[in-house]
Every structure is written in structure tokens, then in C-alpha cells.
Amino acid sequence: MDGTREAQELAALLAALKRRSRLSYQELGRRVFISSSTLHRYCNGKGLPTDYGLVVRIAKECGADADELNTLLRCWKAATGQERGQGPARESGPTGESGPTREAGPGREQRPDSGRTPDFGLRRPQGARFVLATVMALVVLCTAAGSAPYEVAPAATVPVPAGSTSWAQTPSPVDPELFGVTMNSFSGAMPSFRTGALRLWDSETRWAQLEPVRREYDWSTLDRLLDGAEREGLPTLFVFGGTPAWAAPGARKAAYPDGSRAAPPDDLDDWDALVRALVRHAGARIDAYELWVMANHEHHYNGSVDTLVEMTRRASRVIREADPDATVVCPSITELWTAEAHEYLLRFAESGGYQYCDAAGIKLYQRQFTDPPETMLEAVRDVDRTFQRAGYHLPLWSTGTTQTVTLNDPLEEERAANHAVRFYLTGLYARKRNLARMYFYAWGNGNIPVVLQAEGQPPTKAGLFVGRLQQWLARADLRSCGHGLQIALPENVWQCEFLIPDERGTLRTARIRWTLAGTADTRAGTGARSIEYLDNSGREVDHRDTVRVTERPVLIRYG
Prior knowledge:
Layout: H1 3-21, H2 25-32, H3 36-44, H4 52-61, H5 66-79, H6 128-147, E1 167-173, E2 179-183, E3 197-200, H7 207-210, H8 220-232, E4 236-239, H9 268-282, E5 288-290, H10 305-322, E6 327-333, H11 339-350, E7 359-362, H12 376-390, E8 396-398, H13 413-429, E9 435-443, H14 461-472, E10 477-483, E11 493-501, E12 507-515, E13 520-523, E14 528-532, E15 538-540, E16 546-549, E17 554-558
Parallel strand pairs: 2-3, 2-9, 3-4, 4-5, 5-6, 6-7, 7-8, 8-9
Antiparallel strand pairs: 1-10, 10-11, 11-12, 12-17, 13-16, 14-15, 14-17
Helix pairs in contact: 1-3, 1-4, 1-5, 2-3, 2-4, 4-5, 5-6, 9-10, 11-12, 13-14
């Protein structure tokens, strides 16, 4: 191929992606760490990026898919002479590493869930996905082996989840309350594996069950649950929802057999009375209040945004007057993979709803339950961007899952255990985007894809592994999280680094590593002394040892 013609084709493809993204040269350049003038030269053919990693960053910021990346790779190799055996000069960014990779978010063109590729004038060679997988695996292996202090084995090539930018910070404590569970039980029994916080929903504590008749309250189930939480020393989040039929007789029924309604009460004085009675009865036994469940899902709430904001204002005032130490969590937003959910969040924000809360409730879950938990980072990133547009910066509490969770088949035991642990590790990874709390759905329920512990049964492997993760991090400070070549590891390896006190109280470096998919061999690293596994086994290592990393996280201690 003629290099000049291929250079022009590469420029045309980059320009088409840039136009599709609707990002300015200045904004797109900022995201990939180059100047707007340099980016402009790449898009008009007056300059040629000599680092394919930079081409990938530009393309992914614009929402490119695998076929498009393959076409770009073909053009780039021809333009830089690599198809004729010539190696391009190495051109590094500010850090000499791959920068963040993001895909289209709310307000930008989305690819349908079917996986069809948007047509922007590219020719799609047959077998593009297979070719891309092969080429990218070789790029990962060669780059990692040549520039990183690790030995790598062939690893599965999988798409990197959007929103998974590597980061580092001043070490800060890992809050035990991050490791929450939603209680699907009304008996008062508690988890027998280690957990950090409880959330009450599907626990027979809906409004219709607490107040079956106007101003007549039944606190018996709530008291059993709160007494159990108090015995275990666990903070409790109460969730509002399920309006009694007497309070909204003409409204649509909610998704429960008790006749509760998916609507606000006809008279908001009834709402005030419930909140006031609950806070007075529970006192300090309830630490936080989620002011409505799945506010943008018609099976749970089909009233107006303005009414929900007013309910939030009223409840917040009552709670703060009675218990100033309680945390007020704004109504949770679900279906965050859709633009409609972000539009709802913006309407709630623009109507002033978030000014009455200490935290924002969201529902984090994968598009498909079989997807890696790390894919939730894309939803976190999009929520963060939506809140920036709205002008709010509240801690995010992930308070549950999708409405259709019970319609999914159970995951195989080993996969379920890995996903449960990585659910919480993903929460730690998202700390830089202000995610503060994760509530796994659910404890006590044995009919969901990932079961931690069915009531009356011992913990599953997933539950035991979650407890073990919390033991690892009981006194830890989180320092950084990252993955792949961004942190000089094989592309499919993820890692969070901590400071954990040893038996003498001296802070020592520790790293939790896992893969998004497949396996990889990495060096233990300088100062390594032991590796621990989630099944309580372990062994001593030193810096020369190779650590096989899989989809099940491992802990490496240094010192």
C-alpha cells in the first residue's frame, strides 16, 4: 500500500470518529493528553501519530468498536511503514503509558445492546474481530515484556471496560461500611460471614407493612431486624417505598402482593407522619435513610419528579430535626445504562432534590449478569459526568440491583464467588469517582444469580470469599487502582494497592491482583514476601517468583 494514501485514510477515519463524538478538538485532546493543534494535524493528515496506543485512546474516546479499531490498526501500520517491516519511532505521552480509555456516555451516540456497529463509512474486513484479538494480544505481550518488570503468559484479549482509568492518591482508609448487603429476611437473623453494613428492603418493612392503617404502626418486624443489627454492631440503611393502598387508593399497584402503591400519597401530610413516627421509634438504631427505592422505575414510583423532590425536602427536614447524625440518601436511580435514567437524574437535580441529601442513591449492576463486575465502572463514570452537569458532588451509594434480578439464571459456583468479591473491588476502584458504599443484593435470598447465604443455610463460597476480602482489608489504606499497561502489567490484569499494618503495626504495601478474564503470569515484585488466597491458603514468595493471576483475586504482601 502507498503510505501517503494510507496516512490520509487514517486521518479521514480519525476525523470521522471525532465528528461522531461531538467533542471539540480541545476537549478530545485534553482527554488523550495531547494538544488540540496536534490532534487537528492528525485529523487533517498533516501529522501522523507514531504510537498506536495514542490512536487507540483517541478512537475509544470517540466510542470506536472492535471493527473500527481493526481498520485503524491496518491503516496505521501501512501509514507508518510497519507492513513493509519498518518500525515506527516511539512517541510517548506525558507518562509514557497508555492513558484512560473511555467510550460514549450519556448525551453521545450509543451503540445498541445488540452489538451492531454504527456505520460511519468504514469498510469492515471479514474476521475483523478475530484479527483484532490476535493483533492486540501480540501488542500487549510485546509491550509488557519489553517495558515492564513482569513476565507474562498469553492472556485473554477482552474489551477494557470504559471508565476504568488507573489512578493513585494519598492513602486513605478502606471504610468497612463499603461492604454492605441488602437484607431479604424479616426474621432478625444476621449474616454469619463478615459484612460491614445492612440495608433493609424486601425485608417486610415497606411503608404499607409498617402502617397498614392510617396512624396505626406495626414495628415488630423492623424491631427484630434492628435488634439483630445492633447485636452485630452493623449500621443500618432503611429504605422507603410501597405506599399503602389507603394513602393512594387510585394509584397503580406496586410490584408486591400486599396491595402497596407505586405512587406518592395523595396527601403529603401522611408522608410526613410516617417519617416522623419512624425516626422517633427507631432513634439511633437507624443510621441512614434512602428516601425512595428505584425512583425512576414505574413499578416503584410513577409520580412526578416535583412531588418526589417535595417528599425529599420534607423527609430530610424531619430526619435532621430528630436525628442530626443520620445520613440522608436521595431516592435511588436505576437503569443507568439508559439515557432516560440520566435525564431523570438531571430533572431531579435541576428541581433542587439533591440539596436536601448527604448522599445520592444509585443502582449499579452489569448490563448482563454474566458480564465482568468491572463493567459497572462505565455506569459510575456516566453518573459522575451527569452530576458534574447538574452541579452536584455527593457521595454515591450503590443501593441494589435491577428489578429483574430474579429472572436470571444462577452463575456457576466458582464464577459466582469470583464475581461477588470483584463486585466490592470494583467499588474500591470507583472511589475516585466518589463511590462510598456498596450494598450487595442480597442476603437471605437463595433464588438470585449470586447467592452469598440463603437464610438458614451456611454461607456459600461467594459469601466466605467476601468475608475473607474484608479480613484482608480490615485496617487497610487504599493507595491506588489500575490495570494493564497503564500500570506496567499484562493487559488483562487489574490491581489495587494498599498499605496494611503487619503484626507489629508497621504499614506495609499489599496488592490485590486479578484478571478481567483468563490468566496471566506476573512477577511478584520487589519486596514480595507472601501471597494469600481467598480459600485461606497461602505461601511465601520473593521478588523472583512468578504469580499466576486468574479471575479470582489474590493478595500479595510486601515488606
